[in-house]
From TrEMBL, chain A:
Residues 164-268 form the Pyrroline-5-carboxylate reductase dimerisation domain. InterPro entries: 6-PGluconate_DH-like_C_sf, NAD(P)-bd_dom_sf, P5C_Rdtase_cat_N, P5CR-like_CS, P5CR_dimer, Pyrroline-COOH_reductase. Residues 3-98 form the Pyrroline-5-carboxylate reductase catalytic N-terminal domain. It comes from Pygocentrus nattereri (Red-bellied piranha). It is an enzyme of class 1 (oxidoreductase). NADPH binds at N56. Signal peptide: none annotated. It catalyses: L-proline + NAD(+) = (S)-1-pyrroline-5-carboxylate + NADH + 2 H(+); L-proline + NADP(+) = (S)-1-pyrroline-5-carboxylate + NADPH + 2 H(+). NADP(+) binds at I6, G7, A8, G9, Q10, L11, S34, A69, V70, K71, P72, C95, A96, A97. GO terms for molecular function: pyrroline-5-carboxylate reductase activity. Keywords: Acetylation, Amino-acid biosynthesis, Mitochondrion, NADP, Oxidoreductase, Phosphoprotein, Proline biosynthesis. This is Pyrroline-5-carboxylate reductase. Its main location: mitochondrion.
From TrEMBL, chain B:
Pfam families: F420_oxidored, P5CR_dimer. It comes from Pygocentrus nattereri. Keywords: Acetylation, Amino-acid biosynthesis, Mitochondrion, NADP, Oxidoreductase, Phosphoprotein, Proline biosynthesis. This is pyrroline-5-carboxylate reductase. Residues 3-98 form the Pyrroline-5-carboxylate reductase catalytic N-terminal domain. Belongs to the pyrroline-5-carboxylate reductase family. NADPH binds at N56. Its EC number is 1.5.1.2.
Length: 315, 319
């Protein structure tokens, strides 16, 4: 089985690192593509033994499971480009926030009668095999396709199937979650440094405390509130600290964060649902690189309002 | 080697669970004591095969490494009780927040010339072997004693030696840290539920996201800010969320929390530095149980201002 990635950015790097650490696929069976060769992640992917190319079409040809790991507004553009190259064996897995299965199927149905599409939301800790992934299965993908994806993603962390309409909420929670955690550890370390700890030790202790607590919760049947109670001894240091957090509306800030991320994800869905990419969203040099590739027809890869090579009008 | 715990509460339970899971010591070589037999942790310790007793003196007799895992204000009381029973072999490890090595040594010097005392600050995730522990070594404890403690605590998580005067700050950060995390996880799950996720899934995903991020940070040389940048794609969902966190002073709340916990720890140190326990701080039934034990002299276990059953003045005086 070969795996391909359209895109060679942070997510691709994290997934490849996780998959190869898990031993679930060898790096030489992985292809990744991006018209942008300057990405630091692209260099790292190459170093790991991944086949890197500037041609999305080449990635499609070299793979069975094809991850779409580009920004949501790029998705329609990519689908136009690779649509003609999708074959029956292909399992398309979109990782793009907010992009619906039906929007992808709609585009691919122009080229294939039964495109196998799945959608997943994962996160960067797949890099250390502690990711959180959910997925939903499209109309023409079978149960076995779901099982295959689940196997792959379970090798790099927690993975479960969900109803597609929950995926935006998952994005807000565990998709963005690591960013909340990194911010929290940075702040906790600042607190430790304020009270006299050297920075390295403070970062280490803060991260370890979060890791240990999360592990306790995952391994326990108990409510987080109960676990919190167990740490907060009467009149002790912890309950004093907790009061200060509650006074500042700590909990509310986190609810706000999950909500904001989810709402933005839904907005991105709207952008991605547009069938053609706006000319303002793609660099001329990138577009040119794509159009120069063999097999890419100028009419096939169109950009809304502009740069449609065959028609005479130009905006 | 035998390990004893004065105290049979959350911390003793978590340490025992971690040590036995790590296979670093067998449960039957562990003794835990508490005059309070009703604690739920007592039942669990018993189930694990730990020798449970209401006699702190018995726990002392049966152990080589003796953890003091009681609340800070109880420490002077316990030290008075077990002081006469400490022998050359004993390594006393206090886990009590804010209690200084010198205050413990001062008390024990009434009974021994060179008591081996260490102080540590750990946290409850030792229960799943992902604890965070720091320790400092007292005047009469050797480097080997430090290595022994480090071996024990490293079996249940991260462990490193520190200067004693950093321990209060560590208490504020990783001692209390799990409570901050549990609160955050409860709130994150609420956020997920608000946006449509079932509760169990929301708790699961929130905890997994925190765990994964923490692991990435521990395994990486990169700054947390760098890792945060990598998650935040341009115009994406994460950066929108982060803006809200920053607007609400999220970081500041966490700095406040670490500071508040550390400051309270220093206050507790002041309380613990008092040489005798206030009678207001101990239940009559508990005191009674302790005094009834063989080998406890009423004069040795004294509480200030009161309850000196055989006081030195003629005639019994009661306040």
């Amino acid at each position: 089985m070969s795996v391909g990635f359209i895109g060679a950015g942070q997510l691709v790097h994290a997934l490849v690192k996780g998959f190869s650490a898990a031993g679930v696929i060898a790096t030489h069976r992985i292809t990744a593509s991006s018209p942008e060769t300057g990405l630091s992640t692209a260099t790292r992917l190459r170093k790991m033994g991944v086949n890197l190319t500037t041609s999305n079409k080449e990635t499609v040809k070299s793979s069975d499971v094809l991850f779409l790991a580009v920004k949501p507004h790029i998705i329609p553009f990519v689908l136009d480009e690779i649509g003609p190259d999708i074959e029956e064996r292909h399992l398309i897995v979109s990782c793009a926030a907010g992009v619906t299965i039906s929007s992808i199927e709609k585009k691919l149905l122009q080229h294939q009668s039964a495109p196998k599409v799945m959608r997943c939301m994962t996160n960067t800790p797949v890099m250390v095999r502690e990711g959180a992934t959910v997925y939903a299965t499209g109309m023409h993908a079978d149960l076995e396709d779901g099982k295959l994806l689940e196997q792959l993603m379970s090798s790099v962390g927690y993975c479960t199937e969900v109803e597609e309409d929950l995926i935006d909420a998952v994005t807000g929670l565990s998709g963005s979650g690591p960013a909340y955690a990194f911010t929290a550890v940075d702040a906790l370390a600042d607190g430790g440094v304020k009270m006299g700890l050297p920075r390295r030790l403070a970062v280490r202790l803060g991260a370890q405390a979060l890791l240990g607590a999360a592990r306790m919760l995952l391994d326990s049947e108990e409510h987080p509130g109960q676990l919190k109670d167990n740490v907060a001894s009467p009149g002790g240091a912890t309950i004093h600290a907790l009061h200060v957090m509650e006074s500042g509306g700590f909990r509310s800030l986190l609810i706000n964060a999950v909500e904001a991320s989810c709402i933005r994800t839904r907005e991105l869905q709207h952008l991605a649902d547009q069938e053609k990419i706006s000319a303002a969203a793609i660099k001329k040099t990138t577009l040119k690189k794509v159009l120069q590739q063999p097999g890419v027809s100028g009419t096939g890869v169109t950009v809304s309002l502009c740069v449609c090579k065959q028609p005479k009008s130009q905006v």
